[in-house]
Write a structure and sequence with these properties.
Shape: globular
Largest sheet: 3 strands, mixed
Distance between the termini: 39 Å
Oligomer: single chain
Number of helices: 7
Helix content: 40-55%
Strand order of the largest sheet: 1-3-2
Strand content: 5-15%
Length: 174
């Protein structure tokens, strides 16, 4: 069976979804309606556009959901993440021996592409990285914690993947 133009579109952010879902997305891309769909659902980007504002945003979410978790020493937007790590955010845990004591630091770095995204997508990424303060692996307990903090987590993750696909194939919409 010959491949259509739609089947040849690479959907790297949606590769784990069913063939039917991917076919629907390919059709939206071919008909140039994916961007309009996203804009209708998320008409504007957030205004959390610097590291200080991001820190306040993350700390509010942390204090509302994970008060007793480890403190965060650094929270920043990082322009290198998407390119180097093929990730959207990173949580790093650093341990050092300092003067006979074990010191640890937790850092959250969010890909700079989320500076110009809807707040719902930024919130989803932050919740994901905050969940790593408690659970390191991407297992059932991890995703349950994400859903506890953000009940629509899985839907937002899917739509954020649509947004990344839009950026990758058609460019910015905000």
């Amino acid at each position: 069976m010959p491949f259509s133009k739609t089947q040849s579109i690479s959907l790297k952010y949606l590769s784990s979804y069913s063939f039917d879902v991917q076919a629907q997305i390919r059709t939206m891309i071919e008909q140039d309606t994916l961007g309009r769909f996203l804009l209708k659902k998320y008409p504007q980007k957030h205004n959390i556009n610097n590291d200080k504002m991001l820190r306040e945003y993350v700390m509010d979410l942390k204090n509302n959901n994970l008060r007793k978790s480890s403190p965060l020493s650094k929270i920043i937007y990082d322009k290198k993440i998407h390119v180097i790590n093929n990730a959207l955010g990173l949580h790093t845990f650093i341990s050092r021996v300092q003067g006979g004591k074990l010191k640890s630091k937790n850092e959250i770095r969010i890909s700079e592409i989320f500076k110009t995204a809807p707040e719902a997508f930024l919130e989803m990424i932050v919740v994901h990285e905050l969940a790593h303060l408690r659970i390191k692996a991407h297992d059932k307990a991890f995703y349950q914690l994400c859903q506890h903090m953000l009940p629509e987590y899985h839907q937002l993750e899917f739509e954020m993947r649509l947004y990344l696909t839009q950026l990758d194939l058609k460019g910015k919409i905000y």
